[in-house]
Specification:
single chain; 86 residues; alpha+beta; NE0471 N-terminal domain-like; two-stranded antiparallel sheet; 2 helices; 6 strands; globular
């Protein structure tokens, strides 16, 4: 079941706090998911990494260069925050 991302916050390093439809909040460490090559290479710069935003039309996160990730992958690879929106 596809759940759209409704909010994102960069936590530092390569971690993001994601909020999905229904208010569920999950954390993902993109260092465990991405190789940071190609379109994802700019994400190695901490300032650029923090420029992530939600693209509501497609229900996922995106960076200024158009790099994005499938919300299903984000959900599957992330960890729910204990006792918060779960």
């Amino acid at each position: 079941m596809l759940k759209d991302v409704t909010a994102v916050e960069a936590l530092g390093e390569r971690r993001l706090l994601l909020t999905f439809e229904g208010g569920e909040r999950r954390e993902i460490d993109l260092a465990k998911v991405l190789s940071f090559e190609g379109v994802f290479e700019p994400l190695q710069d901490p300032a650029y990494f923090r420029s992530v935003r939600v693209e509501r039309e497609v229900g996922t996160i995106v960076w200024p260069n158009g790099a994005d990730l499938c919300p299903d992958v984000l959900y599957e690879k992330s960890t729910p925050l204990a006792g918060v929106g779960s």
